[in-house]
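Suppose you are handed a protein chain with no further information: no name, no annotation, nothing but its sequence. What can you learn? This example shows the usual starting point.
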Amino acid sequence: MLRSAILGAAFLGLAAPALATTFTFETAKPVDDSRVTVIGTVWTCEGTVCTGDMDRKKVTLRDCKKIAKKTGEITSFKNDKYELSAEDIETCKASARD
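A reasonable first move is to predict its three-dimensional structure. Written in structure tokens, the prediction is:
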């Protein structure tokens, strides 16, 4: 009986989807493509706003820089709980593609 319960719990743990958080970034100019893949995430973009699901909780300057290299100058990067500071956004802008 205990073995069945353990196996059942293990199966549910493997079958459960990863907890992804929706992130949003905004660019200074419209993004050329409606879908952009950066840092293993497919971002869906409409004009200057792009959204994507990532398996992490917080926004990071490192991720912002990687996105900016591919999409251009970032003016905000956030999810429902965290947002990059104005200082970090300015640092991120320096990584933008030309």
